[in-house]
Write a structure and sequence with these properties.
single chain; mainly beta; 15-stranded mixed sheet; 15 strands
Length: 318
């Protein structure tokens, strides 16, 4: 880290060159790594490893900013940002892996959250990152998640899920939460969520594709100042039933699942601390009651307090 402060501005460069990090539980041999001696690692030994992190980030921070205009209020706030990037990403991460999957089940060949150990594989995380005028910009973010596929010779990781992020920013402003803001847009393509969800006896395909947008014009009251929207347009019939139970009341969810032929898409929106859900369906005729409007192809639930929504989702997970 190189930094210099002159008058009211701090400038410098943060340089991380191929750094590795590893966390080891109490029952692990200190001389083993996550990718060595896999057959000898105890099921009780938990390790998490991040390998080959590189970041070259010049920064410029104003200690006493005078411009109070927020980024989301400016016209075309990303034009200057997009022109100043280098030819290749200045943030890369080779892989993040663990001896256990997110459900804490031991994985003999390790569980890779992002990236791969294969020499020819692309980086698990890459992005263009810039910090100036008290704003952190991230563009062309790419997160690669490989899921296992059975091959003639054991298991190989070649089924790719990708998350792509564009025009991401976090404005620190004068460090007053009231003046801070952020925005993020993500495109999700064939991402497998099944390992992150409760184990299903019948099993299901947890692969989804969709878009997610989240932004806030103030961190002083983050719940009411945050706008978020998740639109899922690719999901299996089994997984769509699980998602429906997460976002709809129990009786309504069961009615949808029992009489629905297909759920092509699901949309969840947060605005002003309230949740709005919309499910596109192909089904037989249904009738429902309060807070729910039905049509031939859509069921909506509107103005659900965030706290109530989260409690219902939590009970379904448990």
């Amino acid at each position: 880290l190189r930094a210099d402060i002159k008058e009211n501005r701090a400038t410098g460069t943060l340089n991380i060159d191929s750094m590795d990090m590893e966390y080891r539980g109490e029952k692990c041999d200190n001389h083993e790594t996550i990718i060595q001696n896999r057959n000898e690692i105890s099921n009780e030994c938990y390790k998490f490893r991040i390998e080959d992190i590189s970041l070259l980030l010049p920064f410029s921070h104003s200690l006493y900013p005078t411009d109070s205009t927020k980024l989301h209020e400016k016209a075309l706030p990303y034009m200057e940002f997009a022109r100043n990037f280098q030819e290749k990403p200045n943030l890369t991460l080779r892989f993040a892996a663990s001896t256990h999957n997110p459900r804490m089940t031991f994985q003999k060949d390790s569980f890779f959250f992002v990236g791969s150990i294969a020499p020819e594989a692309e980086a698990g995380v890459s992005a263009f990152v810039d910090y100036r005028n008290n704003i952190l910009y991230i563009n062309e973010l790419k997160i690669v998640s490989l899921r296992p596929e059975r091959a003639k010779k054991g298991i190989r990781l070649n089924q790719k899920g990708v998350v792509v992020g564009e025009n991401i920013f976090f404005n620190l402003a004068d460090l007053n939460p009231k003046n801070m803001e952020y925005s993020c847009f993500l495109q999700i393509k064939s991402l497998d969520l099944e390992p992150y969800l409760p184990k299903s006896k019948s099993g299901y395909n947890g692969i989804i594709s969709g878009d997610m947008k989240i932004s806030s014009f103030s961190l002083h009251d983050p719940i009411y100042s945050t706008d978020a929207r998740i639109s899922i347009y690719e999901l299996s019939p089994e997984f769509s039933g699980f998602i429906t139970r997460l976002i709809m009341p129990n009786q309504l969810a069961e009615g949808i699942i029992d009489r629905t032929l297909d759920i092509p898409s699901i949309d969840v929106q947060l605005a002003g601390g309230l949740i709005y859900t919309s499910i596109q369906i192909k089904r037989e005729a249904l009738g429902f009651g309060l807070l729910v409007r039905t049509s031939d192809e859509e069921i909506k639930q509107e103005r659900i307090p965030l706290g109530r929504f989260l409690e219902r989702a939590k009970s379904e997970f448990n």
